[in-house]
Amino acid sequence: MLSIAVAPSCLLVYDAGCGACAMFKGAVGFLDLGHRIEFASLSDAEVGGLLEGIPASRRWASFHMLLPDGRIESGAAALPRLVSLLPSGRILSRVVEGRGGARAAGWLYSMLSRLHGSTSCRATDRRAP
User: Fold this and answer.
1) For the segment 68-123, what is each residue's pLDDT rounded down to a tens digit?
2) pLDDT tens-digit profile of 93-105?
3) Reported pTM
């Protein structure tokens, strides 16, 4: 059973079996100089019941941020929060939250998330039984 304290940090849940997702996690971990983000695989989070607020059909579609207040943000919608936790992120997150920035971040995220569903990374192959 997964036992990770979410507060005061955020918990980033990602597909540990996906090369692109693992690289994303590595980049976030590298940039998180303040160690404000903890990580868990989608499998562990699912077994631990941490993703109950997300429909099963969407759990493996993107990364998720479990926030200290119990809310869950996913995919492109979680990018402003994620960026705000990184150094200089408060300024950059305001840019990402703006209309043009949100559109650009959404487009970039959709392009990168296509790697998650590519033939080299099939999320459906790693779902917990």
Assistant:
1) 998 999 888 888 788 888 876 655 555 555 556 556 555 555 656 555 555 445 44
2) 555 555 565 565 5
3) 0.70
For every residue of 19-78, DSSP letters joined together read HHHHHHHHHHHHH-TT--EEEEEHHHHHHTTTTTTS-HHHHTSS-EEE-TTS-EEEGGGG
Read off the amino acid at residue 58.
R
Cis peptide before 8 (omega within 30 of 0): yes
Select from 87, 71, 90 the least CA-distant residue to 6. 71
Angle value at C-alpha 94, between 91 and 99, nearest 5 degrees: 150
Interhelix angle 89-97/99-113, rounded to 10 degrees, is: 90
Query: 53: which 2 tokens?
Result: 């607020």
